[in-house]
Amino acid sequence: MAALKAHTGATTSLYSPAGTATLLRSRKRRVAFPSRVRVSCSTVVIGLGGDSGCGKRTFVRRLASVLGDGAAPPRGGNPESNTLVGDTATVICLDDYHSLDRPARKARGLTALDPRANDFDLMYEQVKAIKEGRAVEKPVYNHVTGLLDAPELVRDMAERGQSLGSITASIEARKPDFDAYIDPQKQYADAVIEVLPTKLIPDEEEVGKVLRVRLIMKEDVKHFAPVYLFDEGSTINWIPCGRKLSCSYPGIRFAYGFGTYFGHEVSVLEMDGQFDRLEELLYVETHLSNLSTKFYGEATQQMLSHADFPGSNNGTGLFQTILGFKIRDLYEQIVAERDAVAADAVKA
Amino acid sequence: MAALKAHTGATTSLYSPAGTATLLRSRKRRVAFPSRVRVSCSTVVIGLGGDSGCGKRTFVRRLASVLGDGAAPPRGGNPESNTLVGDTATVICLDDYHSLDRPARKARGLTALDPRANDFDLMYEQVKAIKEGRAVEKPVYNHVTGLLDAPELVRDMAERGQSLGSITASIEARKPDFDAYIDPQKQYADAVIEVLPTKLIPDEEEVGKVLRVRLIMKEDVKHFAPVYLFDEGSTINWIPCGRKLSCSYPGIRFAYGFGTYFGHEVSVLEMDGQFDRLEELLYVETHLSNLSTKFYGEATQQMLSHADFPGSNNGTGLFQTILGFKIRDLYEQIVAERDAVAADAVKA
């Protein structure tokens, strides 16, 4: 589960550890990072939270790509860092605000997910300052010394060869604190990506091979209109594989509908199955509406250009990419609105 | 079940009793009917067959309306006759070709559905002659004297106050011959309307109150492209009732897909439930594709102008109306093609 909230108001309410904040800003000023961050007044803060291994870092990389950003770890820093600096977006890993290092947490019997192991006051002050265009001295934690947990465990397994057993044990051990401190945050998110087992294969034993992924988007969020399939506000099941599109087993199934999520009206788009060929991806893209792409096939192009990213052949990759477009669109609309207000102020 | 075949070739293979033939013709010549029928060379023969009470006569009336035809029983004849004469269409009830009257059938132990009770040779000769533009002496049976069965039993009940018990008994008695002689004809139809019980109400006891209706259209029939929902050649379930359209219980559900029907590739569009208000009907119409309507909302207009016809609030009325458009379109394309051939012949 990855939860995302676009903070466009004056008050920010960010995600706690196992989260990142992405700062989108216009190109008006240069940025010094990581020790000092300066941004213009057109800053939008995106909060991103979720479980270990759910794909937060992959999402951030997709978002940076959608923004046309050459996002990379800060020069001279740890190349494994979750911190990314680009032309338009700066990504801060909120693990940087841990107040207790690993030995200290161990001594007090706390996990990194516990609020008592994190300095939320400093996080709040610094993100607020950045949002207001002021520079901050941001703490930088060293991943190599083991003072931070590595939050992206599933990717770590793929990329660093850790054993499934040790990862599963690590996730299981933090489960109570995940349930207590991380999971409840999804109720505040404007968009949620849920990862579930497939329903296409009866009695599927191999968990995680084929995924069913849901994109839950809150209704009535300004500049953030939900994606839909064919007929907005109705309920639809769609199997695109048929006469015009052939798919290999177990095929692809989409569902679209609406409902409530923690008391909020939401739209839900679900994809079960995976893409095997380019034409399947493009076919699906052309039948989705409100994607906020800038040209025909942009989602397909993004997915193909990062085919090596985890989840590029299933709903996690597709929905992360789509959310990238929605965030870009939201950002551009906010900037345009502020520019219009500023122009009016100059006239008056 | 109503089955329909458009005969556009030189050979006609019409439906046996419990069927009608509709002759569509251009307005080049005047027509004397019922005793003598003359038509121009632009004649298209539509065969229509199906079970007693399935709505064949209602379908013919809807078709005549779509064609803008003032179709009415022949002057001076029985006003209850199934024969209709209009400006563009002439409807012949194939019961007129019974070779045995009711007493004769009773004496030999045959139902009216039995081929031995019908003169197919005369039917073939006369329809062929009409198709070729020659006049015929067509037998006319008198419905009042009881020499013919009344085929539209469900409508008869509604319109003439017959008891459900006597109708059910009559249908049950003819069931073996229906299965043997009428039902198998659907495999030759280009379009079939199937009427089934609803799935919207669990354990529905009141059979026939809410209907689930399927429009099955053969693929690759010239000038007769199947209707589809959202994405041609895929599989879709659609509940239009939702945020934009509110429906009363039990709502409306559409399904669209494809498959084989007696070895033929077919498209299948299914509607479960019924319309309560104009906006529901219009909303559904605007989301269906390939209807062959001539203007926005024509199906809704047709349905509303015959709101008193049986099935006007469910899939039977909608699909009969749509088939009317498809037949009108087919006819106009055939006429245009023949006119083009004729024009070329004049030039050469």
From TrEMBL, chains A, B:
Annotated Pfam families: PRK
Domain Phosphoribulokinase/uridine kinase: 45-150, 153-201
GO MF entries: ATP binding; kinase activity
Listed InterPro entries: P-loop_NTPase, PRK/URK
Superkingdom, natural source: Eukaryota
Protein name: Phosphoribulokinase/uridine kinase domain-containing protein
